[in-house]
Amino acid sequence: MTIEDLQELCRQLPGVTESIKWEHDLCFCVAEKMFLVVGLDKTPVSASFKVTAEEFEVLCQRPGFSPAPYMARHKWVALDNLNRLQPQEWEQRVRESYRLVSGKLPKKVRKELGLEA
């Protein structure tokens, strides 16, 4: 998985924006709320994303995963190398993180993004 692959995947989701934060992190957001952060300053490239409470404990036991600094209390995990996940798992994780974050947005915002009828 490359950064470009993740960008293409994220751009398919409604209302996604991307920006560089903290000088070296590519952040994908929905309504200004982050759902995926890719560390551009390390080799191999790392990433962090939101997961469910149940997944958090399981993923943190897997090689290469750890609680994300500053965000673990919100059930974010950090992955030390993008290539630890296959493309189909990346798609699942990105979509789930997006769903978890966008689901917490106000109903009006979700409606504006086309996430609610």
UniProtKB/TrEMBL annotation:
Domain of life according to the entry: Bacteria
Gene3D superfamilies, sorted: 3.90.1150.30
SUPFAM superfamilies: YjbR-like
GO function terms (MF aspect): DNA binding
Keyword Lipoprotein in record: no
Keywords from the named record: DNA-binding
One Pfam family linked to the record: YjbR
Keyword DNA-binding attributed: yes
Protein's recorded name: MmcQ/YjbR family DNA-binding protein
Organism: Pontibacter anaerobius
Phylogenetic lineage: Bacteria, Pseudomonadati, Bacteroidota, Cytophagia, Cytophagales
